[in-house]
Design goal:
single chain, Alpha-Beta Plaits, 4-stranded antiparallel sheet
Amino acid sequence: AWIKAELVTPTGAAIVSTLVKKFIPLPELSYEKIGCGAGTRNFPELPNLLRAFYGNKKEFKAERNVYIIEANIDDSSPQVLATFFDTAFKLGAQDVFLTPILMKKGRLATKLTVLAEIDKIDSLISAIFKETSSIGVRYYPVERRVLQRKIEKVGSSGKLRVPAPQPIFS
């Protein structure tokens, strides 16, 4: 049963409705302030507490429509499969990697994993079938977060360009 009492004062409701544009699930924040308060009325059903958070949303770039394409291959060596990397990157893959795996009956195999946007998966799957010994793939959407970054030049015996992640806290 829900509590049959006033849980928010009209003044509190007016303040919140003025300050808040919309209510959303609590995002990852860089917290600047956290406030807690306790009411004087006792409810046996739940504590009479309020906690408010103030901060800025962390700066993540969420990329949608990213897919993982996978194939377990047990009849090719990783060295042979590595030749597929150039093809995959030319077709727009964002990442390609190999993972050693152990399959049923103790067979050693390699899992080929390709990360790509949705509009690239058909050509990448075709290339997997054409250039590897795989007879099947699976693919599924994933969410990905990356830090904002800029390319900086660092000193060495020559000049190197390296990605420098940007701070997520203000």
